[in-house]
Amino acid sequence: MLRAITILATAFTLVAVISENTRASQAEAATHRYLVKRAAGRINIDGRLEEADWAACEQIRLAGYNEGVSVKQQTTAKMLWDDSYLYISWHCEDTQIWSTLTTRDDTLYEQEVVEVFINPDGDREAYLELEVNPLGTLWDGFVLKRDSALIGILAWNSFELRRGVNLEGTVNDPSDTDKSWSVELAVPLGELVSAPNTPPKDGDRWRLNLYRIDLPQRNKELADYSAWSPVSGESYHDPDRFGEIEFSSQSVR
User: Distance from CA of residue 126 to its chain's centroid?
Assistant: First the structure.
């Protein structure tokens, strides 16, 4: 799989090489697991999370990016699937929602953002990275990782991914106090070419991690970095520490 994507990468003219100072730990069994049940009805991708399916779905609570690290504003997430999409939602407490980036594939990770890294075949070397900020701006690309080397294929864009953001507050207005912002993603299963089965079969397992970056007062000194499955160092790019999701044919309700 690594060889196939490396060959694919040569077809792109835009390849970003990302330096990383920390080396991921050795491969190990996932410590965080989640059973993804089938959606019973249609999911409207608007960020509101009002469907009965979301209400019936088990909740994930993100914590500090390292074991023992706490965060000040809470983030929860949920996942569902059907034959076409993997659905992911985040709900982010936030008293000051802000973002300035509106161009696709801009440096969203330098501001407030939610992220998911998806490794369908569990090889821990080639995975999809998706990010969405409070303005609904998208970062999408493939990442190739071996040891401490990372290559981000930024020229890859999803053609069928859908996203929605809902705000309980106002973006970029420090004069008021906000409540939260939520994100819904519909990740097209057909674009995840390394998946063992498309659509997944009952019992299929993927490696995946969920993240959030929260920058109160636009101050990196006050930043909170959240993760579902804690990483081993200072980088989210730690596929050996990704959690594990299992697809279930059971309906969520």
Answer: 15
Predicted TM-score (pTM) of the model is: 0.88
Instruction: Note down the domain range covering 147.
Output: 2-251
CA distance 184 to 149: 31
- Cα angle 17-18-22, degrees, rounded to a multiple of 5: 140
- How do residues 39-84 score in pLDDT, each as one tens digit? 999 999 999 999 999 999 999 999 999 988 899 999 999 999 999 9
CA terminus-to-terminus distance, the chain: 36
Identify whether the C-beta of residue 169 lies closer than 8 Å to the C-beta of residue 178. Answer: yes
How many domains does the chain divide into? 1
When pLDDT is averaged across residues 234-242 and rounded to a whole number, the result is: 94
- The residue type found at 109 is Y
What CATH number is associated with residue 182? 2.60.40.1190
